[in-house]
Amino acid sequence: MKAGSGVQKNFTTITLIMKFTACSHMSGRNNQNRGFAMDLKSRLQDFKKNDYEGNDYEIVMDEMIENIGHPDPELRDQLIYTTFYWWVEKGLLSDHSLRKLLSVSLDDSHLFYKIGERSTDTVFTRSFSSLAAALVLRKDAENQGLPEELISEGINKSIQYLKEERDTRGYVHGKGWAHSIAHGADLLAASIGHPYFPSEKIAACLEAVKSCYQKEAIYMDDEDERLIFVIEALLQKGLTQQQLMEWVQSMNDHLKKQFKETGYSVPFFKKKKNFLDLLKSLYFRLGYSQKSKKVQKEISVVLEQWHRTIYRI
Questions:
Q1: What is the 3-state secondary structure (H, E, C) of the chain?
Q2: Are residues 268 and 187 in the same domain?
Q3: Are 313 and 187 in the same domain?
Q4: Are residues 156 and 285 in the same domain?
Q5: What is the pLDDT along the chain (313 residues), one digit of tens a residue?
Q6: Are 279 and 299 in contact (CB under 8 A)?
Q7: How many domains does the chain have?
Q8: Which domain holds residue 254?
Q9: How far apart are alpha carbons 128 and 104 in whole angstroms?
Q10: 217 with 83, same domain?
């Protein structure tokens, strides 16, 4: 026997035992997490069967908030978010619970959880926290029962979130909707619709929408349709046709600059697709109200210019 071989054998055995023990602990923890998720699923399914009514809203709400970004799409979307929706819609939550839901949804561990990451599961926490916050803001717009400073925080953070989100995925295979830009648009539109929204924030909201068209993204899941709800909400709060035309032109100028610098490049075509899709949707949405014909005319001119430029007509 070579010197030290027994020691080596014992060391190897101890190492394997340690690895097995660590794996057992990890497996146990994962099983425990799965158990919690299954238990929460079961309780939320019971709420659903009872038309979302019950007795232990507060206790279950804490677990729902903790799992708001769970990668399981059934738990995250069909159960947690949908339950929150009906609880808020039916007025089943107390002002204390609504305040807690809004405050937690807006914090750095939820709406801004690992903000800046791309292609990771953290987007589900951010995106669905924005939906939860939007629910509360829309409900509070009816009676203003929450503190004004909390609503102001919601308004400011809704603008900030749309600017800072970098994971622009829509539907994620196997994990369901991320849809961060669409959900962020829902939050911003809800913030604007609140009676506490100050008109001096209109320009900042326009910049937030504009920032979505400067991200590295190709929007394929109706993000433009959802962002236009922001524009419509701003029009209700005093956005003028002149301001909107200037905003459209500023975005068009930005695209022209990129075309001049990069020509018929892939990044240019991605930006062009996103921007023109937005304009086309905006054109028809404005037409529904028949109140922004000047803006529609401006949009028509911009669309024609790009058509002639790209296809050399």
A1: CCCCHHHHHHHHHHHHHHHHHHHHHHHHHHHHHHHHHHHHHHHHHHHHHCCCCCCCHHHHHHHHHHCCCCCCHHHHHHHHHHHHHHHHHCCCCCHHHHHHHHHHHCCCCCCCCCCCCCCCCHHHHHHHHHHHHHHHHHHHHHHCCCCHHHHHHHHHHHHHHHHHCCCCCCEECCCEECCHHHHHHHHHHHHHHCCCCCHHHHHHHHHHHHHCCCCCCCCCCCHHHHHHHHHHHHHHCCCCHHHHHHHHHHHHHHHHHHHHHHCCCHHHHHHHHHHHHHHHHHHHHHHHHCCCHHHHHHHHHHHHHHHHHHHCC
A2: no
A3: no
A4: no
A5: 434 444 343 434 434 333 334 444 444 434 444 555 679 999 999 999 999 988 778 889 999 999 999 999 999 999 999 999 999 999 999 999 999 999 999 999 999 999 999 999 999 999 999 999 999 999 999 999 999 999 999 999 999 999 999 999 999 999 999 999 999 999 999 999 999 999 999 999 999 999 999 999 999 999 999 999 999 999 999 999 999 999 999 999 999 999 999 999 999 999 999 999 999 999 999 999 888 999 999 999 999 999 999 998 7
A6: yes
A7: 2
A8: 243-313
A9: 12
A10: yes
